[in-house]
Write a structure and sequence with these properties.
- By secondary structure, the chain is an all-beta fold.
- The chain is built from one helix and 25 strands.
- The strands form seven sheets. A four-stranded antiparallel beta sheet has the order 1-2-3-4, with no helix packed on it. A four-stranded antiparallel beta sheet has the order 5-6-7-8, with no helix packed on it. A four-stranded antiparallel beta sheet has the order 9-10-11-12, with no helix packed on it.
- The longest helix is centred in the C-terminal third of the chain and has 4 residues.
- The two termini are 32 Å apart.
């Protein structure tokens, strides 16, 4: 497809209807994070392979700390250090234009692009430290504190910016309603980043999650982030309105009984969950070995 070889890419974000990609990898010094934003060469079905199918693009600043992609996949928002400040910038895939929309003296941020018009910024979580979450529009205006004083706070913004999935240092999963400022306890324990919102006409009505079968004593989410703990997950679907949860799959069992890997059983620590537009498939990565998996939902 392309003559461009970029080895050891750790993160890749595709957008603009598959025509753009952002790749992150370490430089030769194995310390500096390089981020390359590029346009993919057009592929003509049935056409001849072009020898000069080189991927061309631009480099973002060194050591970009965090990237989130807009729901329509036309823009990215990335965070990087400039002096003593953390800078937030948007990049438009279609015209390669950049716009700085965020500047903070506090440098420990994580971002999620909830709806096309709302970017969620959360402080990096730790079990013993109160966490805070802010929301701002995609132009960088109206920065508002939404959640706070929650130890180990982790978040996942909903597709309409009205619902926020969040967890704490007990890994208790909750939904916060930004319009009523009320919270619902979902009754399952996992991290929001082990979940994804549904797609389709009823977007925001349900959540798919990788839920640990057993959670041993420890300081969360720190122990999981640091690799001291690895979970053995089941896959669940949660109805947002009723809070009813449905077990979709226990990857280590087949036909109701335990199975070994040779029989098809697999221990999964699920991350990077995503569903397709028609909700036919649930995709996820197994944190234990970084293999990509697909679950048929229909």
């Amino acid at each position: 497809f392309s003559t461009t070889i970029i080895p050891k890419v750790y993160d890749a974000y595709f957008g603009n209807k598959g025509q753009s990609v952002v790749m992150r990898y370490l430089k030769a010094d194995e310390k500096t994070i390089e981020t390359f934003a590029s346009t993919l060469p057009k592929e003509v079905l049935g056409g001849d392979i072009v020898e000069s199918n080189e991927i061309k693009g631009t480099f973002l600043p060194n050591n970009v700390k965090d990237i989130s992609i807009s729901p329509d996949a036309l823009k990215i928002f990335y965070l990087w250090n400039s002096g003593d400040s953390m800078i937030g910038t948007t990049l438009n895939f279609s015209n390669n234009k950049k716009a700085q929309i965020f500047d903070s003296p506090f440098t420990e941020w994580l971002s999620v692009w909830g709806s096309n018009n709302a970017i969620i910024l959360s402080t990096k979580p730790s079990a013993r430290i109160p966490g805070y979450m802010y929301m701002m529009d995609s132009a960088g205006k109206n920065l508002v504190k939404t959640l706070g004083d929650i130890n180990g706070l982790t978040t996942l913004g909903g597709p309409n910016a009205k619902l926020i999935l969040f967890g704490d240092n007990s890994l208790s999963l909750n939904i916060y309603h930004t319009d009523t400022r009320n919270s619902d306890i979902l009754g399952l324990k996992t991290l929001p980043e082990k979940c994804t919102w549904n797609k389709g006409n009823k977007i925001g009505d349900s959540i798919y999650c990788a839920v640990p079968k057993v959670i041993n004593a420890g300081e969360y989410p720190d122990a999981w982030y640091q690799g001291e703990v690895s979970f053995n997950d089941q896959l669940w679907k949660i109805d947002v309105k009723t809070q009813n949860a449905t077990l979709l799959l226990d990857p280590v069992t087949i036909a109701g009984g335990p199975a070994s890997p040779s029989q098809g059983g697999e221990e999964i620590d699920g991350i990077k969950l995503a569903v397709d537009e028609n909700e036919n498939y649930l995709f996820f990565v197994n944190k234990k070995d970084n293999f990509l998996w697909k679950l048929d939902l229909k």
